[in-house]
Structures are given as structure tokens and as C-alpha cells.
């Protein structure tokens, strides 16, 4: 296992420590699990190590079937939904 150091904001660290305590685990284990989840979601397989130039990332499905911003009054619709 490799040992490393990271710098994170104090507020974030306190939140992570509280989470770890609530799950009766270590902060290190929370970091390992979070990083493993991140890597599984953002797979690096098939990505060249040094791309020659930046390209647009592949879009993941959002589950939407229509453009939610197609109508001019889309902001008003959002606030109407909140009021209900």
C-alpha cells in the first residue's frame, strides 16, 4: 500500500471525519472507498496517457428525453414546480 498526503479544506475534513465516525470506520478507509468509486465511475481504460489535444468528453445519459431549456419560460416553470 502506498502512503500519500493530500491537502483538503478544514471544513471538508471535519465532514469526512464525522461521516467516518458515524460508520465506525477510519478516515483513510473513507478516502479509499471514495477514490475507488470515483475511478470506477470515471474509467481510464482506453484513454490515451497523453492526448495530443483536448476533445469533448463523451456525454453520459441524463435520462432526459427532451431539452428542459427549449421553452423560453423554463425558469418560470421551475418556480411553479417548487410552489406545488
What report would you give on this structure?
The chain is mainly α and 84 residues long. The protein has one domain (10-83). Helices cover 45% and strands 0% of the residues. It has helices spanning 10-22, 27-41, 74-83. It is flat, with a radius of gyration of 20 Å. The model has no long low-confidence stretch (mean pLDDT 81).
Keyword list:
84 residues, flat, mainly alpha, 45% helix, 3 helices
Distance between the termini: 52 Å
What share of the residues does DSSP label as strand, in percent? Answer: under 5%
Query: Helix fraction?
Result: 40-55%
Radius of gyration: 20 Å
Average pLDDT rating: 81
The total of helices stands at: 3
Principal-axis shape equals flat
Helices and strands, in order, run as HHH
Question: Helix- and strand-based class?
Answer: mainly alpha
Short description:
With 84 residues, the chain is mainly alpha-helical. It is 45% helix and 0% strand. The protein is built from 3 helices and no strands.
